[in-house]
Design a protein that fits this description.
By secondary structure, this protein is mainly β. Among the domains are: 54 residues, Tumor Necrosis Factor Receptor, subunit A, domain 2 (Ribbon), CATH 2.10.50; 97 residues, no CATH class. The protein is built from three helices and 30 strands. A hairpin with a 2-residue loop joins strand 9 and strand 10. The chain is rod-shaped. It holds the Pfam family Ephrin_rec_like. It comes from Plakobranchus ocellatus. One of its GO terms (cellular component) is extracellular space.
């Protein structure tokens, strides 16, 4: 029969064939073959702790872990994917409790244990285990992923019907013939063109539904009629896509008939023959917004200069 030393954590006080006696809970011996109960003085520290003195356990610090009980030190998280490894708190018990401390512009994907770029519209200005980036203030965004500062939130969020070109900070309305349905999207760098042969009546269209047929010169699309309608006297529209409406003739000019593509000058002429070229009906229609019927009739004999008009006026 062979006698073996009592293992660590047990002791035996006398001779004989008795079994070794286990130490009390949470204490152990320093070595094998312990002979007295007083040899059970070392603390048995649990996972996540280390024995900092014979009778005292301390928690593993942030950035460390301990997956074996009763040891005198903790293990470092080290480096993870090129970033300093750390833990969310003290007393970590496994290597899987370690995560990379992501740099500026990066947030922690806790599930994958990887660092990802902050999405557009967010930023992160610190090295940390943060799992979220900071949102930009209302109405502002960034121009790319991975923003590292609040200062990067200097680009306007464009509403539908507009776009922001790359590296531009402000929004621009979609031009005639274009539309943009997206609103508050990441980066909308252009608008969508209407199908061939169609345009929009206004800038800033938000849907393809606003694309209407391009009308021939001298006419414009009328929403109520749902078709192209000739420009009335005093209004004109050149051939082409834009502008899509009939425009008021400049001061001192008018049109001879409906459906005109350009305006002609009105000149003062005392010759009845010259004045007769303009019928009373024509003059009345042309100048009704400026003169009375009696005044329009007088213009059969003496054309009067037009007053100033708002060049921005248009006829739909």
């Amino acid at each position: 029969m062979t006698c073996l030393p009592c293992p660590v954590g047990t002791y035996k006080t006398g001779r004989g064939n008795q079994e070794c006696t286990p130490c009390a809970e949470n204490v152990t011996t320093e070595s094998v073959a312990s002979k007295m109960e007083s040899d059970c003085y070392l603390m048995t520290c649990p996972l996540g702790y280390f024995r900092s003195s014979p009778r005292f356990c301390s928690a593993c610090a942030v950035g460390e872990y301990q997956d074996v009980a009763g040891l005198t030190s903790c293990k470092s998280c080290g480096t993870i994917d090129g970033f300093e490894g750390s833990t969310f708190g003290s007393a970590s018990i496994a290597e899987t409790d370690c995560f990379p401390k992501c740099g500026q512009g990066l947030y922690l994907n806790e599930t994958e244990r990887t660092c990802n770029s902050c999405p557009i519209g967010q930023f992160k200005d610190a090295v940390s285990l943060a799992t979220l980036c900071n949102p930009c203030p209302s109405g502002l965004t960034t121009n790319q992923e991975g923003a590292t500062s609040l200062k990067d939130c200097s680009f306007s969020i464009c509403p539908s019907g507009s776009f922001r070109a790359a590296n531009e900070r402000d929004c621009t309305e979609c031009d005639y013939g274009y539309y943009q349905p997206l609103s508050n999207a990441n980066i909308v760098t252009s608008c969508i063109p209407c199908p061939n042969g169609r345009t929009t009546l206004n800038k800033g269209a938000t849907s393809q539904d606003f694309c209407v047929p391009v009308c021939p010169g001298g006419s414009a699309y009328n929403v109520a009629a749902g078709d192209c309608v000739e420009c009335t006297i005093g209004y004109y529209r050149p051939a082409g896509i834009n502008p899509p409406w009939c425009s008021l003739c400049p001061s001192g000019t008018t049109t001879i008939s409906t459906g005109s593509t350009s305006c002609v000058a009105i000149t003062v002429n005392t010759s009845f023959a010259a004045a007769a070229l303009y019928t009373a009906a024509f003059l009345t229609a042309t100048f009704s917004a400026k003169y009375t019927r009696a005044e329009a009739d007088d213009l059969l004999h003496l054309c009067r200069p037009l007053g100033s008009h708002d060049d921005s006026s248009r006829q739909n």
